[in-house]
């Protein structure tokens, strides 16, 4: 049996482990957390940090039938993926420049400006005093960590320190706060062209900025064509030709502004939602690419898909999640927290208890109760 190594065991990796199993591949999870959700899904576990490339390479170097590497759900493990693929002679579609724009928000902004694409005003100088409102973010952290919207000058310094505290390199970016439609895009790239694209409306509960759900619909209109055009320009610029894409964007008065991009499967069920919308298992397709195969991305259907996040009402110990059995049979349910786990309010993506993907928005508030003591 061939083995595929999945870097990280967060909730965003669970669908990849399951897809690999469906393809008859054995899975190896690498994570510093023995209780990470992906560990329970894997056939084997390498208990080291995903950033400790020498230790991972030492654990894998003599492994027979090692077929590929995958880093789904988060950009943070992409640098290790590229380095390990080169060390171990495994397939990797990511160029150095693709890696750079996926892991550095400032580098992505530079690339968009170089291509003449719309861009918000921004700065990476923590001492700058920009025109407000702005959004302050780490340049190299994901899962909506360290993000603050600033509307008053006296709040700027605290927002900068909050972002720096969660940045692995201590670097931040301050961007003009855009208005309009706040959308996410999930796509599959093949031979340098966008083969599948799904744009989703982010469902939030202000004042929090973290999404509690996504509603995705297929479209062939002006918006989809413009997003496709911009993504293909960026991918050509950085040499990325085959694989998944996850992108955040704003649309206002017909102007599309790409905010950030990751060359990986989106977390929060977005990869599964794109597949559900087109009748193509996009997670399986990504696993096939990781082991050097060419997947079939021909759509077999077109229809909407939605994701809703399972979340705790307050901090405490999870007792039980009631009502999941009442969800439709068509729903794909991923649960990553279990009775006895200490859980937190959903202010960042990693605090989720799981998610549900279906053709229509699942009414979790009516059907599901999260019991926390």
From TrEMBL:
Keywords: ATP-binding, Ligase, Nucleotide-binding. Pfam families: ATP-grasp_4 (PF13535). InterPro entries: ATP-dep_AA_Ligase, ATP-grasp, ATP_grasp_subdomain_1, PreATP-grasp_dom_sf. One of its GO terms (molecular function) is ATP binding. Coiled coil: none annotated. PROSITE patterns: ATP_GRASP. It comes from the Bacteria. Residues 109-291 form the ATP-grasp domain. PANTHER family: ATP-GRASP ENZYME FSQD, FUMIPYRROLE BIOSYNTHESIS PROTEIN C. This is Biotin carboxylase. It comes from Nonomuraea endophytica.
